[in-house]
Amino acid sequence: MHDWVPILIMLGFATGFAAFNIGASKLIGPKHPTPEKLAPYECGMPPVGDARERHPVKFYLVAMIFLLFDIEVAFLYPWAMALRELRWVGFMQLIVFFAILLSGYVYVWRKGVLDWGRDRD
Amino acid sequence: MMAHLLTLILFTPLAGAGLLLCVPRAQEQAIRWTAAIVATLGFLLSLPLWFRYDFTATGWQFAERAEWIPSIGAWYYLGVDGYSALLILLTTLIGAIAVLCSWAGITERVKEYYVSLLILQTGLLGAFMAVDFLLFFLFWEVMLVPMYFLIGIWGGGRRLYSAIKFFLYTLVGSVVMLLGILALYFHGHSVTGAYTFDVTELQQLTIPFALQKWIFLALFFGFAIKVPMFPFHTWLPDAHTDAPTAGSVILAAIMLKMGTYGFVRFSLPILPDASRYFVPLVAALAIVGIVYGALVALAQTDWKRLVAYSSVSHMGMVMLGMFALTPVGLTGGLLQQINHGISTGALFLIVGIVYERRHTREIAEYGGLSKAMPVFAAVFLIMTLSSIGLPALNGFIGELLILQGVYIVHPIWAGVGAVGIVLGAAYMLWLFQRTMFGTLDRPENASMADLGAREIVTFAPLIALAVWIGIYPAPFIRRLEGTVTRVTARVNPAAQPAVAGVPAAAGPALNDTGAGTGFNPTLVTCDSAPAAGPKPSATPSAPPDFVTIASCADSPSKPAPKPAPKAPPKKPGGR
Amino acid sequence: MTAIGFSRGDLYYLLPELIVCTGALLLLLADVALSQQRQARAAWVAILSLGAAATLLAVMSASETTIARGTFAVDGFAIFFKLLFVMSAAVTVLLSHRYLTIEGGRPGEYYFLVLCATAGMMIMASGIDLIVLFIGLETMAVCFYILAGFLKPNRRSNEAAVKYFLLGAFSLALLLYGMSLLYGLTGSTALRAIATALASGSSGRLLAVAVMLLVAGLGFKIAAAPFHMWAPDVYEGAPTPITAFLSVGSKAAAFAMLLRIFFEGLPAFHLDGLGSVFGQPLGWASFFYVLSVLSMTIGNLAALTQTNVKRMLAYSSIAQAGYMLIGIVAGTPRGVSAALLYLVVYAFMQLGAFGVIVLMRREGVAGDELRDLAGLSSRQPAIGIAMLLFMLSLGGIPPTAGFMGKVWLFASAIEAGYFGLAVIAVLNSALSLYYYVRVVVYVWVRREEPGTPPIVLSRAMIVALAFAAAGTLALGVYPRILFELAQASAASLGRAEPMLGWLR
User: Fold this and answer.
1) How confident is the model at residue C436 (pLDDT cuts 50, 70, 90)?
2) Which residues does chain A have within 8 Å of residue C2's beta carbon, measured at their own beta carbons?
3) Could you tell me if B475 and B552 lie in one domain?
4) Are B442 and B510 part of one and the same domain?
5) Contact (CB, 8 A) for C115 and C478
6) Is B168 close to C430, i.e. CB distance below 8 A?
7) Are the beta carbons of C72 and C497 closer than 8 angstroms?
8) Any idea which of B494-498, B516-520, C218-222, C438-442 has the lowest mean pLDDT?
9) Cα–Cα distances in Å, from B508 out to B435, B502, B512, B532, C187?
10) What are phi and psi of C68, to 5 degrees?
11) Got the DSSP string for C305-372?
């Protein structure tokens, strides 16, 4: 049980931090409500309406690519922690891993997935 | 070269087919000549099987053995005995004839035609040579495809229907047969501990009766469809009728023998108890086939169909003789296969000749042809008589031996068989009368050309053989003797002592005197069976109902009267 | 021993997979780096990396070891399958070359996916751990989902991709559920540990459920009835070379996985408390028995009426899966070797048959209808002969490889005492000839329709078809080497031990 106390404290801190921020901005911040601002969330889509609507494919592409790279970057954390034990072999393995990731990135880039400026097709 | 004679014979047609592929499509005459040369060469190469045949040898002759799939015990194992040597000779001869008889009839896709014909030839030869059961099966199925093409592309009438019918019928039979082969293979392993498809070794197995029955039925299914026996024959009239002439000739002369060959080579010696057990069934089907085929032939209006149904009848006769399981009957059955190949092959050639000229096979369309085509009529007459079984021609010898062999075991069967012969005479002579005699009332018939030189060449060897076998069958019968002895020793040992005892001692003597007696040693030995001493006829393993058909030694008084009145008067007449 | 990461030995034995993956990455980069005109060179990259992988596999063909902490076996069985996959992939690449220029896809991406799928298959053949197997399967499956829909403007292709994706995901879920139950029951994902755990304890009903789920999941992947319904639509809609690869590679890989799971993980499994049928206790063989009979019968009956060759071959491949399952049902070393042998044989004939269909695709002609084949023999006699060989082989007529394969499958059934199954199988194989011969009739007997564009052979196509035809014929006439290989490979199943020596 003793081991879990720091996590409990951490949890308390996190909750407190969130509560404090929300509360503080409620009390101190300026308020100019508009219908858009009062809507549940705003990230490009109207929250109410026909579900069968056309969206730019790009939207999903970026979301997916973000997920992919994000998760793969998450691998770096345990590697960084164990780097000393892994030594050079581990280092080389991660370089290979990174190279694979990088070639995917180059492909995605050159394919124009990250190109928001012009309509490709 | 002699060491690899069989391989050489086997692959000559295939090599010829490969050669043909290189000849330009437009050079039709060159293609025909190439095929003819290859086929003739094939025949010439097979002649040593006749001249260098060793009468004293007991095992496979000209044998070749090479590794094929050693891990499963399958060998490239070729070999012949007297019986298969004769069939191979017949095959190469008919193969050459088939090429010749297609000379004018086939004008479309000539190249593919001759390639199919030659590949078919290899398949046929391989099946007769294979000593390895798997190798046999391989060649057995290889034949299907070129034959399918021959019927399907160059046939007439409902050719695609007939082709697929032939293909599927035979295929269903053979896949079931394959299961039988595999069951045999695994049983062989459980007994001897070695995996083998070698027929020689399979023949020495003791197989429990129950398993024998199942394997027999599986093999029977495959072979009986090919023969074809009565309820399985329905593919035959269609295939024969719609096939091109060469296709019908090969089908009738060689391919049907595949089925009977299978029985003699595999079913009888490997599964003796089951063979004896199923004698009544097979004999019944054979007899029904004889009579049914003859009756249906009588009712035909199509010339080729008539000949096709006559095949059903004749092959029933062959099966009856073989399943008498007596040396005489078996000899007759084997010899009659050769005879049937000669006479029915020729009859299909004859139909082909008139069809080429008139493009109809309706019997009613013809009449009085003997006036327009005298040579043709003479050839047709000889072959008709050969087919009927007139003395001095080949058919007589075979049928006589068969009836004799059957009579020993079951007089009534022989009686019904004889009725079939009478009916056979009826439909053949009636056919001859309707087409050759009468008034030559149609102008298009009057202008039909008689046989040309090429056509006479195709018929000449068949006529010569028919007369040869009819007058002096001894060389043929002596070649069959070894096979007959071996098979009867397995399947009907009760009939054996007399026969088995003879060849070693009397063999050379008979060879010398063969010409003098004019008849086969097996006949002699069977008559002399009583002299060899009365033996207990039934072996312990034989089913009870077999006792009556067990041996000729059992009924010494019966065979005597039957052949006696028949043989003596006709034999001298023949000579 | 290093605690984490790969040892030198691991890397050495993984080299074939690594080479294929490297090739795939290069192709991905080539897709964006090369100009449109030079895209055709992508095929060379694919062929070369596959060739290199095949060479390495041949070099290590005598190996028998497990690597990566006992999750990955490099034994005769794995190498046998990997060579099969690499060969199929190479033929697919050759077949695709011209097809892609007609259809207008990007070669780089396409070959990348083909190589990735190949790598997935190779992992499936080697995995002796449920997780590794699943990763391989997923890698392969995802690539095939995309490849099936590679013809973006083609509605059929889109439909194929969606169908394959949805049903594939469903089947993967079933499989995963089965695996998780197996893990829950035995406490391990390693196949041998599972076998040990099951051998000591009694098998409950839960195990039966797990096995059923595994059978269903793998049944989808090998396209065995009653889990076959995706196959005809996907096969018809997907680009033809991909259909060929899907029907050969994916099926073989699923068979490899099936053999690994059931022969290494669940040997001698039978279900307590479910009774027996015909005196035989129910086990996984019983499930495969049913699958086999259904696949053969349904596949062949449905194929009889098809007029689209791709669809017909799809049903035929369902039936072929049924034949292969006979070897699994028999469960003997002979049965396994027969299944292995037949998979190779099947690869040659199936790739060849689809290759001819690919060839029929010209500008303005889809080429996958039976009537499109009419008169092929008079236009291209060599192709006519090749198609004849493929069809005869699929039907099991000697002297083609299909005959040898079938004989051996039937033999295994008879040896194991499954006479009923053998009879059903032979009757089915006779029945199947009807529709195979119909193709032959179109190729050889029917006349071509006037006005159809000529059939042009490309060099890659000739190589691919000649290879398939030569294999089909050679393995039928002299199958000795294949027999020995298959027997040795089947025998190596489950024998590999962790390696010793310097590589470790």
Assistant:
1) very high
2) 89
3) no
4) no
5) no
6) yes
7) no
8) B516-520
9) 48, 10, 6, 20, 82
10) 50, 55
11) T--BHHHHHHHHHHHHHHHHHHHHHH-SHHHHHHHHHHHHHHHHHHHHHHHHHHHH-BTTB---BGGG
Alpha carbon distances (Å) from B502 to B51, B508, B522, C287: 23, 10, 9, 61
Other CB atoms within 10 A of residue B301 CB: 12
Neighbours of B, requiring at least 3 CB pairs below 8 Å, are C
Q: What is the DSSP string of B296-309?
A: HHHT--BHHHHHHH
Instruction: Kindly tell me whether chain A and chain C come into contact, counting contact as 3+ Cβ pairs under 8 Å.
Output: yes
Beta-carbon separation of C29 and A103 below 8 A: yes
Contact state of C397 with B141 under an 8 Å Cβ cutoff: yes
- Percentage of residues of chain C with pLDDT beyond 90: 64
State the residue for tokens 């699994």: C328
DSSP string covering C399-427: TSHHHHHHHHHHHHHHHTT-HHHHHHHHH
Q: Is B101 in contact with B457 (CB distance < 8 Å)?
A: no
Residue B405 within any structural domain of the chain: yes
Does residue B536 contact residue B495 with C-beta atoms inside 8 Å?
no
In chain A, the domains with their CATH numbers are: 52-121 (1.20.58.1610)
**pLDDT grade for C279, boundaries at 50, 70 and 90:** low
Give the pLDDT band of residue B32 (cuts 50, 70, 90).
Answer: very high
Provide the number of structural domains found in chain B. 2
Q: For C390-394, what is the mean pLDDT?
A: 95
**B310 CB neighbour count, 10 Å cutoff:** 28
Q: Are B379 and B386 in contact (CB under 8 A)?
A: no
Structural domain boundaries enclosing B407:
287-493
Residue type, position C177, single letter: Y
- Interface residue B210 vs chain C (CB under 8 A): no
How high is the pLDDT of residue C361? 87
pLDDT of res. C271: 58
B386 shares its domain with B352: yes
Beta bridge partners of C369: C308
For residue range C110-168, what is the model confidence (pLDDT) as tens digits?
Answer: 999 999 999 999 999 999 999 999 999 999 999 999 999 998 888 889 999 999 999 99
Contacts of C3 in chain A (CB under 8 A): 85
- ipTM for the assembly: 0.91
| Omega within 30 of 0 (cis) for the link into C454 | no
Residues on chain B touching C386 (C-beta within 8 angstroms): none
- pLDDT band of residue B567 (cuts 50, 70, 90) is very low
Query: Contact at 8 Å (CB) between B310 and B351?
Result: no
Please tell me the predicted confidence (pLDDT) of residue B569.
40
Q: What is the pLDDT of residue C269?
A: 64
Identify the CA nearest to B390 among candidates B349, B417, B425, B423. Answer: B425
Would you say residue B546 has pLDDT above 70? Answer: no
Nearest to B144 among C397, C479, C480 (CB): C397
Q: Is the dihedral of CA B167, B170, B172, B177 positive or negative?
A: negative
Please answer yes or no on whether B149 and C444 come within 8 Å at the CB atom. yes
| Cβ contacts from B onto C, under 8 A | 78
- B422 with B322, same domain: the answer is yes
Prediction pTM value:
0.87
